[in-house]
Amino acid sequence: MKELVEVIAKALVDNPDEVTVTEKKEGKTTVLELHVADGDMGKVIGKQGRIAKAIRSVVKAAAAKEDMRVVVDIV
């Protein structure tokens, strides 16, 4: 899942070198924290959060296929 979020985010931003994803386990849930450059934050979130919501939907669908629970936080 971590690689999936990283690939999607790098495709969206101007500075793909500054994209990092950290993974934390909290019980049965995996939390993925997406870090991008300050100037790229708007591109990852999108108007009214549409792109962020789309990223979360794709990850949620991929996680459901593997019977996992994944949460994506944009930091």
Structural class: alpha+beta
Instruction: Name the average pLDDT.
Output: 94
Order of helices and strands: HEEHHE
The DSSP helix count reads 3
Gist of the model:
With 75 residues, the protein is an alpha+beta fold.
Question: Layout of helices and strands, plus pairs?
Answer:
Layout: H1 2-12, E1 20-26, E2 29-35, H2 41-45, H3 50-65, E3 69-74
Parallel strand pairs: 2-3
Antiparallel strand pairs: 1-2
Give structural notes.
This protein has one domain: GMP Synthetase, Chain A, domain 3 (2-Layer Sandwich). The protein has 75 residues and is α+β, with helices and mostly antiparallel strands. The radius of gyration is 12 Å and the shape is globular. A three-stranded mixed sheet has the order 1-2-3. The chain contains three helices and three strands; from the N terminus they run H-E-E-H-H-E.
Keywords:
globular; 3 helices; alpha+beta; 3 strands; 75 residues; GMP Synthetase, Chain A, domain 3
